[in-house]
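for the record, two folds in this file. i put them one after another cuz i was lazy. first one right below, seq on top, structure tokens after. the second one comes after a little note so u can tell where it starts
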Amino acid sequence: MDNRYVQQFKKGSLEMILLCLIGRRETYGYEIITELNNSASVLGYAKEGTIYPLLYRLQKAELVKCRLASAEANGGSKKYYSLTDKGKEILDELLLFWSDYENCINGYIAAYQQEEVSE
């Protein structure tokens, strides 16, 4: 399979996935990356160079907010992300869209598979 088509599809859904992860509970970047990598067989491996710019973009769009907390392990600080009200609203809209999108795509797939069987 030509991987570029799969990569493009995954890129389009990654922001929604991040909003879902952050919407479950306040979390930090490394925890998000670890969670994504637990699904690596489907999503591929998440890299800091991909995830942190997306988190920054979501923050700039006021969909997520962050707070700094001290990191006990190294004495530094850790950014914790949570959804804003606007982020929750956008996520809810995206989830409705995703449901409609999924139903539409599944309809095309079913029609294709039906044609394939009848040939």
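(here's the note) second protein begins now
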Amino acid sequence: MNLKSDFSKFNNKDFYPGNIILRTIWYLVSLIFFKSNWLPFPYFKVLILRIFGAKIGKSVVIKSTVNIKYPWKLSLGDYVWIGENVWIDNLDDVDIGNNVCISQGAFLLCGNHNYKKESFDLITKPIKVEDGVWIGAKSIVLPGVTAKSHSILSAGSVTSKNLEAYSIYKGNPAEKVGIRTIS
């Protein structure tokens, strides 16, 4: 006999995203300064993220309409570029190295649901993006992925597996299609 999903049994008790007051304040600040076009200056966005506990390197550029779930679970290295409409859904830690480009509309997703359980419980895993990586426009990085040094995930691609260093991936699911050489 096959069981059916029963969301009334959903159990999220082990997930603690942070203090409710801090999350509420972040939600309001994020609406005004990140999810809108109101504050186009990256310096102020970096300052706000640091105030909320993010670890941010130097010369970070964050464009308009960026959605960051929990800044206290975010670490950005030096010279990171985050394009318009990027969504960092960091229900778990997201660690982004130096000289990384996260292009427009990319989605870094740390959470998922256990579809094998009747209760459809939440599963979270961290994402690590090492130095020199380029995550292409409208691409998706799923929970638990490590994008190794200088790998590329081409525009519109989806990965649920680690990306090898200096390798180029494309498609859904993303497949290795080449080697990245830098001259």
